[in-house]
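Pasting as-is:
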Amino acid sequence: RNIIGHEKARKDFDPDVIKVMNDSLMIMVVDVSMVKEAADLRKIVPPAMDSEWMIKSKELTERVLAYYKDSEAPKYVTGFSPFMVLRTSFDQIFRGEDNKTKLLNFLKEDPDSFLVALDIIGDTIMKLNEMLVKECGADGLYFSVNNQSHYFPDDIYREYITPSDKKVIAHANTLSDINLLHICGYAGKAN
């Protein structure tokens, strides 16, 4: 459906800006199955660059960008923040559990391990972003961060989460002069 949607959009429109929906594979999921206590966050395993998920992400992005190869409009690919990846990973691996409380408790119990996890994820996101720009030909990144419905209190978010967002954004700015920051809210959940 993603490819069909882009193909139809390209036939119908000549956009000034292109936001590639390479996120239909959705957010990268990190293996957090071994995390039972905060210190275990240091053991998380993001997908390798030669993993099936990374390969499919690259293939999808290249296929979509091909529809816009004749366009002079800037083409942006979607990326998600380290914390969004961590949250989503917990929600997918530990379905039905109170992951919000679990993550907040891990952060309070061992902030250093929590920050290591965000760094591990952030480093992988930066490699992914580099691949999407340098190998797939995207012009920049559409980087999604969020703290919907104050998932974490704002002061905790600013102190512990924001630095990983800024690290990924700073790296994105080495890849492209023009990147977009998207402060994501959806389904009635505001930031």
